[in-house]
């Protein structure tokens, strides 16, 4: 069979809806200034889909440094990979400042989080080693594990008994193979908003010999006294062997980093293929990230405002009887029961009649019959944004319960049924 014919025949689970949903549910175009309200399909909507936690995306100081740095350097400088020709004092400075901020000896900058962590995982282990990882890890971790030539065990999400069982299996293998164990989890799980049980996993270090990597994409800048993340929040930052975050969320930028002991970071500098064989971060991003880090350190009011909004939104939703699952972070999941067509109609109603834009997750990403609406409160939101959202959510919940969305027989509803 022709490959392309086969691909067209077997559409992906979400791709099968692309004809009806493209640029509305998937690939929507949000216009206007990045913030709490943006334009979608020509109308202003309250926006809950950006990981712009601290509201830095459109902060005047951030916009200023980004503009000045682009003018000063252009986007090309420096050319080539860090290893060959793309290094600079400012890259080194950003690494040193990040190390100090997350309380680690050294840091390697990564040009994107996804391929950065993926190839860091690959660079750390060989076929004698075993990876133990949380089953609900982000795709970049799963893909990193796929690159591993040796054994791997996924433990049930945030289940410490399952984690320990995986460590026992891993240890039985490494005792024979003379390899080591890399355990990978997240600081905050981006869908459910529950923090990884870092404290409990660290406690297992007393019984098992393993090294721990934490992807703290959603915790960095939002959790912990200084904003250093989930490890700081749980009092175990010093026990995390490799701390990773992207700049794409609270820093509202591009790039990522991994921090740890100097000798291990040096190993990564010389072995991490996604960095050795790819262009280093352009200077405007390096300067822009230095500025953002300075703001994270010196403007605690941004995190205070973020948490005021998180608490107002989450307590307001709970008071209206919504199920927010296990979240103990800013990520605010709202779990409802309904079919895929009901989810689609509900989101359409929220967007068109209440001007609320949030992300929706449906089967097959989550089990059949569940609807997950995912809200990301930020420091840029206002109490008014929260009030109108709470009222709208209460109304659509009632409509869902009354079967109003299920009864819809429009051409669109029929098409996706
Ligand atoms: C948990 C997690 N890790 C890694 C990444 C990838 O980071 P980047 O966007 O820098 O590639 C993301 C998404 O941005 C994420 O949510």
Quick summary of this structure?
By secondary structure, the chain is α/β, with parallel strands linked by helices.
Properties at a glance:
15% strand; four-stranded mixed sheet; globular; Aspartate Aminotransferase, domain 1; 16 helices; 417 residues; binds pyridoxal-5'-phosphate; 2 domains; 14 strands; alpha/beta; single chain; seven-stranded mixed sheet; Aspartate Aminotransferase, domain 2
Q: Can you walk through the features of this model?
A:
Helix content is 43%, strand content 15%. The protein is α/β, with parallel strands linked by helices and 417 residues long. The protein has 2 domains: 3-53 and 300-415, Alpha-Beta Complex (Aspartate Aminotransferase, domain 1); 60-298, Type I PLP-dependent aspartate aminotransferase-like (Major domain) (Aspartate Aminotransferase, domain 2, 3-Layer(aba) Sandwich). The strands form 3 sheets. A 7-stranded mixed sheet has the order 4-10-9-8-7-5-6, with helices on both faces. A 4-stranded mixed sheet has the order 1-2-3-12. Helix 9 links the parallel strand 8 (211-215) and strand 9 (242-246). The protein is globular and about 60 Å long. Bound molecules: pyridoxal-5'-phosphate. Pyridoxal-5'-phosphate binds at residues 112-114, 138, 140, 186, 190, 215, 217, 246, 248, 256.
């Amino acid at each position: 069979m022709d490959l392309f014919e086969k691909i067209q025949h077997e559409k992906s689970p979400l791709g099968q809806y692309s004809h009806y949903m493209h640029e509305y549910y998937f690939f929507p175009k949000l216009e206007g200034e990045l913030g709490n309200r943006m334009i979608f399909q020509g109308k202003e909507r309250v926006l809950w889909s950006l990981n712009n936690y601290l509201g830095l995306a459109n902060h005047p100081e951030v916009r200023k440094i980004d503009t000045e740095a682009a003018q000063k350097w252009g986007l090309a400088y420096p050319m080539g990979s860090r290893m060959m020709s793309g290094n600079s004092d400012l890259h080194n400075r950003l690494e040193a400042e990040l190390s100090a901020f997350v309380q680690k000896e050294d840091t390697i900058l990564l040009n994107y989080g996804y391929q950065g962590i993926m190839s860091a995982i690959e660079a750390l282990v060989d076929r004698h080693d075993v990876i133990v990882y949380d089953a609900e890890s982000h795709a970049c971790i799963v893909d990193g594990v796929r690159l591993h030539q040796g054994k791997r065990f996924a433990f049930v999400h945030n289940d410490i008994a399952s984690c320990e069982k995986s460590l026992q299996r891993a240890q039985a293998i490494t005792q024979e193979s003379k390899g080591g164990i890399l355990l990978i989890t997240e600081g905050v799980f981006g869908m459910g908003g529950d923090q990884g049980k870092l404290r409990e996993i660290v406690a297992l270090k007393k019984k098992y010999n393993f090294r721990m990597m934490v992807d703290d994409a959603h915790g960095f800048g939002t959790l912990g006294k200084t904003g250093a993340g989930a490890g700081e929040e749980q009092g175990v930052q010093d026990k995390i062997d490799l701390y990773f975050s992207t700049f794409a969320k609270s820093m509202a930028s591009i790039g990522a980093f991994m921090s740890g002991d100097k000798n291990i970071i040096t190993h990564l500098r010389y072995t991490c293929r996604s960095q050795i064989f790819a262009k280093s971060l352009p200077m405007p991003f390096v300067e822009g990230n230095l500025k953002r880090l300075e703001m994270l350190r010196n403007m605690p009011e941004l995190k205070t405002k973020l948490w005021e909004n998180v608490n107002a939104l989450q307590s307001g939703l709970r008071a209206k009887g919504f199920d927010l699952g296990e979240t103990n972070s800013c990520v605010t999941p709202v779990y409802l029961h309904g079919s895929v067509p009901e989810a689609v109609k509900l989101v359409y109603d929220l967007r068109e009649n209440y001007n609320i834009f949030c992300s929706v997750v449906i089967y097959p990403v989550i089990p059949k019959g569940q609807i997950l609406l995912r809200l990301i409160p930020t420091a840029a939101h206002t109490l008014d944004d929260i009030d109108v959202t709470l009222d709208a959510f209460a109304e659509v919940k009632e409509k869902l319960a009354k079967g109003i969305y299920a009864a819809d027989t429009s051409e669109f509803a029929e098409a996706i049924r």
